[in-house]
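If you are new to this repository, start here. Below is one unmodified record pulled from the training split, so you can see the exact layout before writing a loader.
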Amino acid sequence: MTALEVRRLRKHFGATRAVRDVSFDVHYGEIVGLIGPDGAGKSTTMRMVVTLLTPDEGHIRFMDREAQSDTAFVRSHIGYMPQRFSLYQDLTVEQNMLFFADLFDVPVAERAARMERLYAFSRLGPFRDRLAGMLSGGMKQKLALSCMLIHQPRVIVLDEPTFGVDPVSRHEFWEILHTLRQEGVAILVSTAYMDEAVLCDRVALMHEGAFLAFDRPESIVRTLPRVIYRLETATPARTFQYIRENSDLEIQLFGDGLHIYVPGDQKDTLSTILKKLNIDMNNIQPAEPQLEDLFLYLMQEEAHG
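And here is the target side for that same chain:
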């Protein structure tokens, strides 16, 4: 079943087209990710979904209701975690959760059971008496999520919830999201981390306000019309600059090596070029395409189009 339906959403800020004809839906028991760099339009899209911004054009249906004409229903039934969730630093973990229970009118008789579940869920139980201001970054994000979940929303929207969080806490946070998905919660999440994109059921690659692609991560990757070779080198940045200056090869820095993109299977042509550059072919191997490869390709195609 569809929890959230967005059609042809547009938003301008002066001459800036922040969101351009964005359409997608999110089903119950599904994680949909908006993937892209800063300025891609992810936050603006999410703020329209949760009715904090009004679209210039397009419409949003939230739990079978028109969001723009029923903002009170949306705000009382959605869970929204913005980039900077406002915890009360001088309140304890438990006091923060009780405050949000009051805010969302959670029945008093149900609060203890809900909070105990969230403590177990987030592993914050041992820290219930600690001031929020004394928590680590990852623990603050888990507390923010717990406060947002206290009223048990069936649809949640998370704007870059793991930005700046350590790798272990990021992993734990995504474990929580997958548990929520298994319970039937519809989740819309944004991130700039490509490794998090593959943790979503479907992803939208977003750039300059528009979707470049929207599908399952494994399906999107297969659309890359390039063969990729990985060049291992002890000096990737220097080698990258050398190849760029001395050839027309399409290359990108990728981790601790380089990815070289070849239209079709033209390894012989590639071999000839690299020999002229005195680069050892033993250091180059075919590579499986990643979402980042496709994203870079789509951005280049849009820029040239």
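Two things worth knowing about this chain: The chain is about 35% helix and 30% strand. The chain has a mean pLDDT of 92.
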